[in-house]
Amino acid sequence: MNSTIWLALALVLVLEGLGPMLYPKAWRRMILAFAQLPESLLRRFGGGLVVAGVVIYYMLSHSAG
């Protein structure tokens, strides 16, 4: 795989790990709150994250070359 993909994956893992490492109680409350949301809202939220990721990838790939 391209080294850029590994760099992106590493950055995601670092960012995802900061919440439970620095604020474990708040992170747990957030996860519990997410568990109470309706499935349709979770799907919208997930879809929004996917679209945001694709847009960022598109912008970065076109600005780099």
Q: How far apart are the first and last residues' alpha carbons, in Å?
A: 18 Å
Strand content: under 5%
Number of strands: 0
Shape: flat
Supply the number of helical segments.
Answer: 3
Q: Estimate the helix proportion, in percent.
A: over 70%
Mean pLDDT: 91
- In this structure, how is the largest beta sheet organized? none
Structural class: mainly alpha
Low-confidence stretches: none
Radius of gyration: 15 Å
| Elements, N to C (H/E) | HHH
| Tally of discrete structural domains | 1
**Quaternary structure type:** single chain
Task: Based on the model shown, name its key terms.
65 residues, mainly alpha, flat
Overall description:
With 65 residues, this protein is mainly alpha-helical. The protein contains three helices and no strands. α1 packs across α2 (24-36). It is flat, with a radius of gyration of 15 Å. The mean pLDDT is 91.
Topology:
Layout: H1 3-22, H2 24-36, H3 39-64
Short description:
It is built from three helices and no strands. By secondary structure, the protein is mainly alpha-helical.
